[in-house]
Amino acid sequence: MSTEPRWDETLATQGMPIRTATFAGEPQDVTGARLAAERFLRELARVSPPAAPECWHDILLVVDELAANAVQFAPGPFRLLLRRTFDGVHIALHDTSTTVPRPRPFDPGEGGGGIGWHLVHTLCDQVSVVTHDDGKDVHVFLPW
After folding, report:
1. Considering only CA atoms, which of 21, 54, 56 is closest in space to residue 36?
2. What does the angle CA 20 – CA 142 – CA 4 come to, to the nearest 5 degrees?
3. Where are the alpha helices (DSSP H) in the chain?
4. Are 88 and 141 in contact (CB under 8 A)?
5. pLDDT tens per residue, range 87-136
6. Please, are residues 125 and 142 in contact by the beta-carbon 8 Å criterion?
7. For the chain, counts of helices (H) and of strands (E)
8. How far is residue 75's CA from residue 80's CA, in Å, rounded to a whole number?
9. pTM attached to this predicted model
């Protein structure tokens, strides 16, 4: 007996939209990005609950890290995109810096920092960075 892929028709029929939010790039916008992600996840959970509770928390932590990096290292606005994929959630963050993020050594004696990019790579199934003339897009995929 052969099996065919099972598509999540619920989301297609419910019309689960892609969510985007644009922020000025101020420190308080990290909280704004997290709140936007929470709204998206609440809506998503109504039609497709997460496979495990940590999926929700991992997504919020990754949004926090990406937004904080955009505020700290890229001048100006950033845009957050969240969308459901077949088996998870795709997050894309566009900022104004063309510098590709790199892991930095973590040194707690220097006041912290250096752990966020490691967290993103640990929690995400896939991470990619696409640079453009006007900045970069960081794409991450997490389970849901």
Report:
1. 21
2. 105
3. 9-14, 29-47, 53-73, 116-123
4. yes
5. 899 999 999 999 999 888 877 777 667 789 999 999 999 999 999 999 99
6. yes
7. 4, 5
8. 15
9. 0.86
